[in-house]
Each structure stands twice: as structure tokens, then as C-alpha cells.
Design a protein that fits this description.
- The chain is an alpha/beta fold and about 210 residues long.
- It has one domain (about 5-205): Vaccinia Virus protein VP39 (Rossmann fold, 3-Layer(aba) Sandwich).
- The chain is about 35% helix and about 25% strand.
């Protein structure tokens, strides 16, 4: 079993946090110096609600991009080094953005509600036993009728390395109660390891409570 996949299947958020903190000491594969193209297209197609949570924001490229378009965006990540780098990018662009070091399983600590939550490569780090905790955490900060968009590695990606592969059925099973799944479609997850990116799912979900 691949090392990173084995780590995620272990289900320990503590060890995952350490992994990501160490990764941001350098340039991890998912840091491409710009927002993922799938989310740029998604914003153009969907138009997000005004208040947006970038959950697992990394060094803030998507957060900063959406702020420049007029959205009120908060970025959170478990890795302090990632958040420091995001804050420095925001200062360089003269952007006033709230970035927080945050356990994604405890989003209620933000004490804020959002119309839209974006998840660019976070759901697929959670082993199945943690996914319902993550779902509850999302529900704690998403306004009634709010939207959640996720981009995750799919089971059709066969190259070595990377996080857990997620099936459509796993997404549907996690969000089978309290949510409507609008659509799940094939997508690409860009990395600086592969010019053509990795095979992924992009999903649109709405909380119904």
C-alpha cells in the first residue's frame, strides 16, 4: 500500500496534520501556484454565495482569487506553515483575508456561517470512519440551503502516490442524510507532478436542514 494512502487509512487526524505541516516546508504536489482550474470554471458556472469557506485552503491561491472577485472568503487549513504562507501572499496582494489554523473536524470553532463551502482535495484525506465527523462539521457552519463543492481523487486514477481514491458511491453514502447531491462529474486534479493532472470527481451538494 502506498505510504500516503496508508497514512490516511490510519484515520489519525494528528498524524495527518503532522504530514501536511511537514509537506508545506517545501512545495507539496498539490501546490501549483494558482487555483485549480476546476474551481475557476465552477465559479464561472455556478456563482457562489457571497460568504465562502475555503476548507483546506493550503497557501491560499483559491481564497485570494475569490476575494479578488468580490466574495467574502475565509480560508482554513490544519497546517500552520500553509496558513503563514497564505497570509504572506495576501499581504503581497494587499488583500484583507481571514486565514485560520483549523481542524476541519471542528469548524464550529469559527463561529461563522457560510453560503458556500469549497473543498479542493480535503475530503479524500479522511478514512471512512472520519467522514461522518467531517460531514457534521460542515453542517455546523453551512447556512440552510447552502452549497458544498468538493474535488477529490477518483478510483479511476491508477498512478502511484497521492491520497485515497474516492468512488461516487462513497460520496453518496457519506451524504445520504440531510443533503441533496446535485451532481458528480469527472474532473482533473492538477499537480506539478503530472502535466495532465490526476483523475478526479467534482461534486455539488446542498444541505437540506
Amino acid at each position: 500500500m502506498k505510504l500516503l494512502e496508508a497514512l490516511f487509512r490510519g484515520g489519525s487526524f494528528f498524524f495527518m496534520t503532522n504530514f501536511f505541516e511537514e509537506s508545506y516546508a517545501g512545495i507539496p504536489p498539490w501546490e501549483i501556484g494558482k487555483p485549480q482550474a476546476e474551481f475557476i470554471r465552477l465559479e464561472q458556472e455556478e456563482r457562489f454565495g457571497n460568504s465562502v469557506l475555503d476548507c483546506g485552503c493550503g497557501t491560499g491561491d483559491l481564497t485570494i482569487h475569490l476575494t479578488s472577485l468580490g466574495y467574502d472568503v475565509v480560508g482554513v487549513d490544519c497546517a500552520p506553515t500553509a496558513i503563514k504562507k497564505a497570509q504572506m501572499k495576501a499581504i503581497e496582494k494587499n488583500a484583507n483575508i481571514r486565514f485560520e489554523v483549523m481542524n476541519a473536524l471542528e469548524l464550529q470553532s469559527l463561529n461563522q456561517q457560510f453560503n458556500t463551502i469549497l473543498d479542493c482535495g480535503l475530503f479524500h484525506v479522511f478514512e471512512e470512519t472520519l467522514r461522518l465527523k467531517y460531514k457534521a462539521s460542515l453542517e455546523s457552519v453551512l447556512k440552510p440551503g447552502g452549497k458544498y463543492f468538493m474535488l477529490v481523487f477518483s478510483e479511476h486514477e491508477t498512478r502511484e502516490g497521492g491520497p485515497l481514491r474516492i468512488t461516487q458511491e462513497e460520496i453518496r453514502r457519506t451524504f445520504q442524510t440531510g443533503w441533496n447531491i446535485q451532481w458528480i462529474r469527472a474532473a482533473r486534479f492538477e499537480t506539478h507532478l503530472h502535466g495532465d493532472g490526476s483523475r478526479a470527481w467534482l461534486a455539488s451538494l446542498t444541505v437540506t436542514r
